[in-house]
């Protein structure tokens, strides 16, 4: 779940559907697999052919294409249940229609499914004591502060509440233009709805049980449009893959326990110097109570019991174009490609939205209205009553990021003789990033500590590939290879004067590998063994920026940053090495036995110091 200051770095593995990438910066989409030809799991690094975010590999989902030769109709229905789950189902259908014999065909795919829930939301009250190390201080009038825990979740009790619903369709049209050329156009649509949260439960409550005060929901819709044209120009094969991908997903997550911690820690009855004079105080106009940090008072009073959620919406879109030329010869095969991509990743988030009351009725908003404009919250120093009439949360932020990428890639395969084969390849890329980040605190008021920040950056580099193999006989070969993968660099958002640089560079993973792939006993026993060493240079690491430490350092000269701000930095180098083995034995027709094993050691080579 992306929260304020959430994920910034790119994925380390890429996801493709047919010829186009759907890799996301945060959480990856979840294509429902219906009428699929195969799923390719390509071990990384795959940087030369699949580009950025293919360090640890690429998952490629290949769909069934329209069949020009015959009519086909498939219907499928299944249902299931379990002792601890609800009932789930799947309905899908496939219709293949050749409209022009041997020239034009259309394939329709549709599906609806539900993964049954198995976690129960059971009865419970909100936390009934102050959390953490905070002390239940007596207020200035000598009246003990009231305890919380007055609210319960009786209205949303539900068994098996974490079900997931899927619905979608795919339409593909294949036109065989002539003997050498064809074009395939495909439209994808999918909707995913998560009800009640994911598959997590609270073991302190009970096995497969949880206590939550708000319904967790998530809606994830995406569309993709693809056009692939391919054909032969003499002995050279051309592939042109054009795609447009768009996605919108929104989530609402119960965060009552988490936000209760901050509410009871900082919205406490206390004397002005209870936190060493750093935090402001505010006098509750209704009770006269002194409050240490009133922006965290999301209920009508300092001691109000509360339930809360957080969430928002993500918007993604990308246009990509790839051209590939390839040729197979007697001694040499070669491939040359160009890739262009323009993508956007935008999101917004509201943090600590009260659901037991309206934020407009909160003491937090009163503080901003009559006492929020001064360091110490003095009455009359705020922004005016009614200055934020649409505010629903004490914190709202937006992030807009655009990437433009250009790459040229290729590889050459040289069959030196009947035993030896060499492959040389590489990818040169350039990527530009622009980011704009906005914080309003509360919602509707731009923060005075880096409320609007903008940055841009660019990077270019080259990743190589080398491979040499020796074919001992028809059933045994040994090889060595060197491959690289990379994650593109980017731009941090910056509220205040951050510790780490505004931009960060691409990180690279170089894989050195020696291996053997063998068949024995007439092909009934397979043994593959691989030795590897991976060097990870300038690896990207998401951290909470330490610049806020300067705010409480009396000797600090530089201005401080904002608290709990997540940034990405190039933290140093690391490596992993080991041996991997796969054994498969087929002792009889219809019986297959397999064993996979790996021994690995991974270490960081550079100490990470953020002080």
Can you describe what's shown?
The protein is mainly beta. Helices cover 4% and strands 53% of the residues. The protein has helices spanning 47-50, 256-266, 363-370, and strands at residues 14-17, 20-21, 36-43, 57-63, 72-82, 85-100, 104-115, 120-121, 164-176, 181-195, 209-210, 217-233, 236-254, 282-283, 290-291, 308-328, 332-354, 395-415, 420-440, 452-473, 476-487, 490-491, 503-504, 507-520, 525-537, 540-544, 566-570, 574-588, 591-604. The chain starts with 13 loop residues before the first strand and ends in a 7-residue tail after the last strand.
Main traits of this protein?
611 residues; mainly beta; 17-stranded antiparallel β-sheet; 4-stranded mixed β-sheet; 3 helices; 4% helix; disordered N terminus
The N- to C-terminal Cα distance equals: 28 Å
* Shape label: globular
Tally of strands: 29
Classification by helices and strands: mainly beta
Largest sheet: 17 strands, antiparallel
Query: How much helicity do the residues have?
Result: under 10%
User: How much is the average pLDDT?
Assistant: 85
Helix count from the secondary structure assignment? 3
Are there runs of 5+ residues with pLDDT below 50, and where? Answer: 1-7, 129-148, 271-279
Radius of gyration, CA atoms, in whole angstroms: 29 Å
| % residues in beta strands | over 45%
């Amino acid at each position: 779940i992306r929260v304020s200051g959430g994920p910034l770095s790119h994925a380390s593995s890429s996801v493709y559907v047919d010829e186009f990438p759907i890799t996301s910066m945060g959480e990856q989409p979840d294509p429902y697999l219906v009428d699929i030809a195969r799923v390719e799991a390509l071990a990384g690094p795959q940087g030369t052919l699949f580009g950025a975010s293919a360090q640890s590999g690429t998952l490629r989902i290949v769909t069934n294409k329209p069949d020009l030769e015959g009519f086909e109709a498939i219907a499928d229905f299944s249902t299931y249940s379990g002792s601890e789950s609800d009932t789930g189902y799947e309905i899908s259908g496939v219709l293949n229609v050749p409209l022009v014999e041997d020239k034009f065909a259309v394939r329709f795919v549709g599906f609806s499914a539900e993964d049954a829930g198995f976690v129960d939301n059971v009865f419970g009250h909100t936390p009934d004591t102050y959390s953490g190390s905070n002390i239940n201080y007596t207020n200035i009038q000598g009246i003990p502060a009231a305890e919380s825990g007055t609210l319960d979740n009786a209205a949303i009790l539900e068994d098996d509440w974490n079900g997931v619903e899927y619905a979608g369709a795919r339409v593909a049209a294949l036109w065989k233009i002539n003997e050498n050329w064809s074009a395939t156009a495909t439209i994808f649509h999918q909707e995913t709805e998560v009800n009640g949260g994911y598959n997590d439960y609270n073991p302190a409550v009970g096995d497969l049980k949880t206590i939550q005060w708000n319904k967790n929901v998530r809606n994830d819709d995406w569309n993709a449009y693809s056009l692939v044209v391919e054909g032969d120009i003499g002995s050279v094969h051309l592939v042109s893959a054009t795609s447009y991908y768009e996605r919108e997903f929104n989530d609402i997550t119960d965060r009552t326990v988490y936000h209760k911690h901050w509410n009871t820690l900082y919205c406490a009855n206390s004397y002005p110097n209870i936190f060493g004079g750093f935090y402001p105080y505010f006098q509750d106009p209704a009770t006269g109570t002194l409050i240490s940090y009133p922006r965290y008072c999301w209920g009508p009073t300092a001691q109000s019991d509360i339930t809360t959620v957080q969430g928002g919406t993500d918007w993604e879109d990308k246009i990509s174009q790839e051209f590939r030329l390839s040729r197979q010869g007697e001694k040499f095969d070669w491939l040359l490609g160009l890739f262009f991509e323009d993508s956007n990743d935008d999101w917004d988030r509201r943090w600590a939205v009260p659901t037991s009351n309206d934020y407009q009725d909160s003491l937090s908003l009163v503080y901003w209205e009559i006492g929020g404009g001064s360091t110490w919250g003095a009455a009359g120093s705020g922004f005016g009553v009614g200055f934020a009439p649409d505010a629903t949360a004490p914190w709202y932020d937006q992030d807009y990021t655009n990437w433009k990428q250009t790459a040229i890639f290729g590889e050459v395969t040289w069959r030196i003789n009947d035993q030896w084969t060499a492959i040389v390849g590489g990818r040169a890329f350039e990527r530009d990033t622009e980011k704009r980040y906005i914080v309003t605190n509360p919602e509707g008021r731009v923060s005075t500590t880096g409320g609007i920040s903008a940055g841009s950056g660019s990077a270019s580099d080259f990743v190589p590939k080398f491979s040499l193999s020796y074919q001992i006989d028809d059933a045994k070969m040994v090889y060595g290879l060197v491959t690289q993968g990379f994650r593109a660099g980017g731009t941090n958002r910056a509220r205040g004067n951050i510790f780490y640089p505004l931009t960060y560079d691409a990180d690279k993973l170089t894989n050195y590998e020696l291996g053997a792939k063998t068949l024995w006993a007439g092909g009934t026993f397979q043994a593959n063994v691989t030795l590897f060493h991976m060097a990870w240079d300038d690896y990207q690491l998401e951290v909470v920026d330490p610049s806020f430490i300067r705010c409480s350092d009396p000797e600090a000269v530089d201005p401080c940053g904002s608290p709990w701000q997540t940034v990405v930095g190039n933290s140093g180098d690391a490596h992993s090495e080991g041996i991997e083995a796969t054994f498969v034995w087929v002792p009889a027709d219809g019986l297959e036995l397999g064993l996979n094993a790996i021994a690995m050691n991974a270490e960081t080579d550079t100490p990470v110091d953020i002080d």
